[in-house]
Every structure is written in structure tokens, then in C-alpha cells.
Design a protein that fits this description.
With about 575 residues, the chain is mostly beta strands. It has no helices and 48 strands.
């Protein structure tokens, strides 16, 4: 009788094709694969997991701990013979590093709700507790770069009046990336400005001086680190309290009756830094608004100083009538002399003096000069009138848009004209009135409370009437002027002594203008007067008045086209 021979030969050790020995992984799930004797069972000394090498190929997934793990793999054939070990060592690091980001600049924030600073130099620093950092990813307001693990801070220069965002993340040697830390800083080197100065006092008393500040930002700001002072340190006024977003801060001298009907935000003696002297010098002061931050003092605004007959003087304002010195545009530096104007002394008022008389100023309210489209009755460069700053005012100087200059008017803007005699709007360049059905552009009387509100704050004491203002005149050099969804009312103060083109609330002389959805109403003369003009009028309405000389549309020469328009209520 014969017996079979038993298999006692051990198979070859399994081959590991992947991963390579000493490989590093950022996940704890690692798959090992390779080749072994066909139908042998591949096992390991790390876990009880096994796999059969079908067709001689095997793959086995293991969950490994953090750090270095050494594993031996074996092959066991169907007869139970076990191979020699195939060793492999792998490293697992799946823990992302941490990251912390701070900005020392924000220690001087002016806002309690966000980081808002009065400097363009921004400092950032970061740290991580990870000991295996390879580098840091930096995002400087959209510009991406990397830095060495030793670099833990940077200083950048931001644009003024912008929002700057700095981001940083840490990357370790294994390639793990931390969460991104971000810091956003609002930059305003001129967050608060000196807006109005009653340096001459008031009609009640020349000692009743006051100063108004304006917050240009969209955040409430603390004034605790601000100081308002003159170049000779008289007055020297440490500020306190807060100023609201886009709001005013009223500083009254000595007591709260200086502006009798408006509570002061701060009362100060307007005295010198050492207690000597007091009040604003009527010969002019170099006023400075500064903020202390990080042990340094930064000037945020100054007031222009002008020259007079006997030396320096205030650029605007006057002792005659006690008119205040008003900032025209809060967006323009106070050191620019042309950015200051005297209170108009009429039309726009706010506040009462100690004797309850009208102040020739606008404490804690929009400056009278700020209503003007252009100082001196003209604009010198292209300008856009916005709804946010509406209504606008054309005072006794009128308004000239020179040749080559474009005045653009956004939907909803209201322009009020103050007088029947002097002012008129003279377009030598281009005007584009861009109204909409819901928000027309409006040209109207200063006394018209229906549009733009009660600008003269007199309730119903004054009411508008036809002929309250003269005209809107587009002259021969005008090119490309257009009016869409525009309402013109209460104009037309003119007579036959004017040329034909000037006999309406709107006049056009030898220029081509597009009028679409124009409404002219309650004019004292013609609604629209065209002289030698090829203008186009569509979808418009003319309702002037019953004045025997008031036509809705008056044409003298030219070849205008008129379509789909309504004429009613004209003579």
C-alpha cells in the first residue's frame, strides 16, 4: 500500500508593492497591497485581519494609530506552511496643526463692534503649537504666498478707506493644513472730521462758540482718545463719548445754551492746555483733530488757514451776521481751503441761539454748503448727483456746467432752485438726467415740500408757485444731453425780453436734446422752448398754466420731432 507525500515547504514571503516603506500618511486608513503565493492567506502581526491572495494578488486595509507603526506581513499556504516575515514601517500624521492670528493694530480700534483704525500700516502676527510646521499659507487681501515656519508676523500697507482682510493657515510636514484664520480691518485715516466752526459766536453772544464734528464711517466710534486743539493749544479740548455712524457731534463752549434747542454732546470752556486763555481766535486758528493710539498721536483732520490783510484768518465764516464756516464736502480733506464755505445766511437753517434766534449755521445737521452742486455756481469736472445726497440746491449764483463737462443725475435726485430772479441752470456741456418710473429726477422750487422734504424747515409757511425759478437752459455747445423720466415744475420765470430759447422752464438753443417721459408742469411761461433745435420729444406731458403766454411747447426754427405726448392745461 502506497501513501502520498505531505507539503512541508513554506511559501515565499509576501511582496509589498504599496506603500513604500517609511511612507507618511495624513489618514489613519492605510491600504497595503502586493503579491504572494496563489491562494495563500496574507496575515500581519498588527491585527487579526487577513486576505487571500487570489490569483497571487492581495490587498489589505488597516486602521493605524498616529506616529510610526512597524508591521510584519506573512503568507500561509493551503497546507498551513508560513512564510518568512516581510517587514514595513509607515508613519501616520492625520492631525491638522492649529493656528492663532492677532493684530496689534486692532488694539487701537475706534469701534467696539469691529476693527476700524486710522492708519494704513497694519501689523499681523500668528502662532501654532505644532512642532512640525513646514510653512504658512498667507493671503494678503487676495494676494496669496507662503512663508517659512520661522516667519510669524508681517506688516502691510492698506489702501485708505478700504477693508483689508488677512488670512493665514499652517501646513505641517505631513501636508496637513490647519483651518484658515482671518482678520478684517477697516481703514479710515480720516474717520471723523471737523465739519463746522462757529468761530465768531452767535447773534446772542460772540462768546457762544461751537464746533461740530462728523463721522464719515458707517460705524459708531468712540472719541475717548481724540483731542481737538488749535496750533497755539488754545483751545485744547480732550474729547469723550461716542459719535454715531454718519452722524454729528456738537461741542459747545462754556454751557449748553450756546445752541439753545440742541443738546450738546460735549461742553468745554475752550481753554488752553495749561488752562490759560479761552475761545477761538477771530483772526484764525490752525485747528487740529488728533487721535492717540499705541503711544503715538495721529492727526486725522486739520482746518485750512487762509491769509488776510493782517496775517492769517479763517477761510470762511464771518463776524457780520455770525455766519459759521462750513465744510463743503466731508470726503475732501479739511486742509483744502476751497473745501470751506460760509453759511449761506438764508435758505438752510438749523438751531437757535441763546436768545432763540435762528443760527446762521447748521449744528448737528447737513451743512448748507453741502446742498450746493458746486461752489461758486459751477462745476469744473464731471460730477454725478446721487440719491444718497439728495436734495441738492441751486442758490443765487445759479449753476453752470461748462463745455466738455458732464453732469449726471441719478434716479430719485431732487434739485431745488431758490429764487425767481438770479439763478438758472446753464448747460454748456452735457446733462444726463437718468430717472426711472418709480424715481424720477426732479427740478423744482425751493419751497416745494412734496419733493425733497421741507428743506427750509418752515412747515406750510411758504408754498411753491409757478415762476419760483427761472430756467434750465441747454446752450448751443451742449452735446449728448438727455432727460429720461424727469419732472420739471414751478419754473419759467421769464418774459419776452428774453430770447426765444429762454422763454420756458426748459430752453434749448441750437442743440439736439433727447426728452423721453419728460413732465413739465406749473411753469410761468412755456414748458419747453426750442430754438433752431432738432430735439426729440417722446412720451412726455406738458401742463404749464393758464398764463396767456404759456404754451406747453414753443418751437422757433429747427426740425424737432414730437410723438406720443400729451398737452393739457396750457393756454
Amino acid at each position: 500500500r502506497r501513501s502520498g507525500r505531505s507539503d512541508t515547504t513554506a511559501p515565499d514571503a509576501p511582496v509589498i508593492n504599496s506603500p513604500a516603506s517609511n511612507a507618511t500618511f495624513t489618514t489613519t486608513s492605510v491600504t497595503f497591497s502586493g503579491t504572494a503565493e496563489e491562494d495563500s492567506t496574507v496575515s500581519n502581526d498588527f491585527s487579526n485581519a487577513t486576505v487571500v491572495a487570489t490569483g497571487g494578488i492581495w490587498s489589505l486595509g488597516l486602521t493605524l494609530p498616529q506616529g510610526t507603526t512597524a508591521i510584519n506581513f506573512y503568507a500561509t499556504d493551503v497546507a498551513g506552511n508560513i512564510s518568512e516575515a516581510t517587514p514595513i514601517t509607515v508613519f501616520v500624521d492625520s492631525v491638522s496643526p492649529d493656528i492663532t492670528l492677532t493684530s496689534s493694530t486692532c488694539a487701537n480700534t475706534l469701534s467696539s463692534t469691529t476693527c476700524l483704525v486710522a492708519t494704513t500700516t497694519l501689523a499681523f502676527s500668528w502662532s501654532t503649537s505644532a512642532s512640525d510646521t513646514a510653512y504658512f499659507n498667507l493671503d494678503k487681501n487676495g494676494t496669496v504666498s507662503t512663508s517659512s515656519p520661522q516667519a510669524l508676523s508681517t506688516t502691510v500697507t492698506a489702501n485708505d478707506e478700504s477693508t483689508y482682510t488677512f488670512k493665514v493657515s499652517a501646513v505641517d510636514i505631513a501636508g496637513n493644513i490647519s483651518a484658515t484664520a482671518a482678520k478684517t480691518i477697516e481703514v479710515f485715516t480720516r474717520p471723523v472730521v471737523i465739519n463746522e466752526i462757529a468761530w465768531a459766536g452767535t447773534n446772542a453772544s460772540s462768546f457762544d462758540e461751537w464746533v461740530e464734528l462728523y463721522n464719515r464711517t458707517g460705524k459708531d466710534l468712540s472719541l475717548s482718545n481724540f483731542t481737538l486743539y488749535a496750533g497755539d493749544l488754545t483751545p485744547y479740548i480732550p474729547l469723550s463719548g461716542a459719535i454715531g455712524a454718519k452722524s454729528y457731534f456738537l461741542i459747545e463752549r462754556t454751557d449748553d445754551t450756546t445752541v439753545n434747542d440742541i443738546p450738546a454732546d460735549l461742553v468745554s470752556p475752550f481753554s488752553g492746555g495749561e488752562g490759560g486763555g479761552s475761545g477761538l481766535n477771530n483772526n484764525g486758528e490752525n485747528l487740529i483733530l488728533a487721535v492717540a493710539s499705541g503711544g503715538a498721536t495721529t492727526t486725522v483732520d486739520t482746518v485750512a488757514v487762509c491769509s488776510g490783510f493782517s496775517g492769517t484768518t479763517w477761510c470762511k465764516g464771518s463776524e457780520s451776521g455770525f455766519k459759521t464756516m462750513e465744510r463743503y464736502d466731508p470726503e475732501v480733506a479739511g486742509s483744502v481751503a476751497s473745501n470751506w464755505e460760509s453759511h449761506m445766511g438764508e435758505f438752510i437753517f438749523n438751531g437757535k441761539d441763546a436768545n432763540n434766534g435762528n443760527l446762521n449755521g447748521t449744528p448737528r445737521a447737513r451743512n448748507s454748503a453741502n446742498y450746493l452742486i458746486g461752489l461758486g455756481g459751477s462745476i469744473s469736472s464731471d460730477k454725478t448727483l446721487t440719491l444718497a445726497n439728495s436734495p441738492y440746491l441751486v442758490n443765487r449764483l445759479g449753476l453752470i456746467v461748462p463745455q466738455g463737462v458732464t453732469l449726471t443725475i441719478d434716479p430719485g435726485v431732487v434739485i431745488k432752485i431758490v429764487s425767481a430772479q438770479e439763478p438758472w441752470i446753464h448747460i454748456l456741456g452735457t446733462i444726463k438726467a437718468n430717472g426711472t418710473p418709480a424715481q424720477p429726477v426732479v427740478f423744482t422750487s425751493f419751497y416745494d415740500d412734496e419733493y425733497g422734504g421741507d428743506t427750509n424747515a418752515d412747515g406750510s409757511a411758504t408754498t411753491p408757485a409757478a415762476g419760483n425759478w427761472r430756467r434750465l437752459f441747454i446752450d448751443t455747445t451742449s452735446v449728448g444731453s438727455t432727460f429720461t423720466h424727469t419732472l420739471v415744475r414751478y419754473g419759467g420765470n421769464t418774459d419776452y425780453t428774453d430770447s426765444a430759447a429762454k422763454r420756458g422752464a426748459i430752453g434749448v438753443d441750437s442743440a439736439t436734446v433727447s426728452f423721453d417721459r419728460l413732465i413739465v408742469e406749473r411753469s410761468n411761461f412755456h414748458g419747453l422752448s426750442l430754438a433752431n433745435s432738432n430735439s426729440a420729444i417722446t412720451n412726455s406731458r406738458f401742463s404749464t398754466s393758464t398764463n396767456p403766454v404759456a404754451a406747453g411747447l414753443y418751437i422757433s426754427g429747427g426740425s424737432p420731432t414730437i410723438s406720443n405726448s400729451i398737452f393739457s392745461g396750457n393756454y
